[in-house]
Structures are given as C-alpha cells and as structure tokens.
Amino acid sequence: MNAALMLVLVINSKGGRYYKQEINLLECLLWRNIHNIIMTMPKIIIIVFLFSYFSSSHATEYQSTEDFLFRSFSGKPPKPKLLWLTKDLKKTAAEILNHNPGFMRTRYWKTAEQSVWIINEIGKTKPITVAVIIKDKKIMLLKVLAFRESRGWEVKHDFFTNQFKQNTLASDLTLKQPIDGISGATLSVRALTKVAKLALFFDGKTY
Hints:
The chain has helices at 31-39, 65-72, 87-97, 158-161, 186-203; strands at 5-12, 18-24, 44-52, 60-61, 81-84, 105-110, 115-122, 127-135, 138-147.
C-alpha cells in the first residue's frame, strides 16, 4: 500500500530500552486518536515522530530519463530533436489521446537504428512518465519511468509492458496486437496504451 506511516521512537523510563512502533498515519489524523495511542504506551519519556510519505503527490521514479537514454544508446545518447505539432499532427494526437495534447512540440532521440520517446500521460489525475523505444515502426521496449497515481502502479511490471513489444500501429490508430488489462488499473492501462500509440504515430512522422 502507498500509505503514509508514522514511526514512533519510544524510550522506556524503567529499562532504558528503545523500541519502535509503526502506526498507519491515516488512522491518526484526529488529535484524539494520537492522544489515545500515546496514552497506551507505558512510561514514555521521549517520542520522536518521523513521517515518511509515499503518497500520490510525489512521483515514484523508477529510472531517470538520463539513465534510460544512457542505457538505450549504449552510453552515447544523441542530441534531442524536436517534433513540432502542426495542425494535422495535433488533430491526430488528440484523436489518439481522446483529449487535446498539452504541448506544441515534443522531444525525441533518434539514431539510424531506433528512436526514443518519453511522454507524460494522465492516468486518473496525475501524469505517468513513459519511455518507448521504436525500431522499424515496432515497439522494442515500453517502460514506466515515473508513477504518480495512488493506484494502478502494477502497469510498471514486465508482465504487462512486455505486451507492447513488437506492437505496431494500425491504419485506424489502434495497436495491431491487443493489450490485456489489469483489474483495478484500468486508467493506467489506458494511459500506457495511448502513449504507445502516440509514440508510434510520432515516429512515423520523423525522418
């Protein structure tokens, strides 16, 4: 669970021993609850509260953009290029995303062998950062670099992202190979599928 935890450090006045207790912070939002918890602890001298948040307000970064590019191009990533969204490109991108793209241009990295696209797409309320490697109009790799939602993080695993390998874009802007969903992660699955389609579409517009 991505729950915030409160770590309580207690010093017992009798034995001078230290012990720790983890308490779900979500259950202690009211002061009376905190007071009740403290009162149940025997002979407390000092209590130190350390808060560690794993909430949706902070991104969980699995890999940095720099490291992904370094590894994708064997330590020698090319300089980024820019793809400007013309009126027609913007229209098709909006059709793929089911909403207007929130950018007028996008960066990509390309050599004679492959291209790399790093795109953000909203899951439920927050963007998911996804990297896509494309070669010969096929997806070689799709990877979640950062996840910010409270649910749906299962899409980061290989058992899901491997479905995108070798996938291509059909003329009707769908993926030729279907993608199986994940129960409880529908919006995240949808977001990654949109990114895959958009990267394939963009790649077809570069030379």
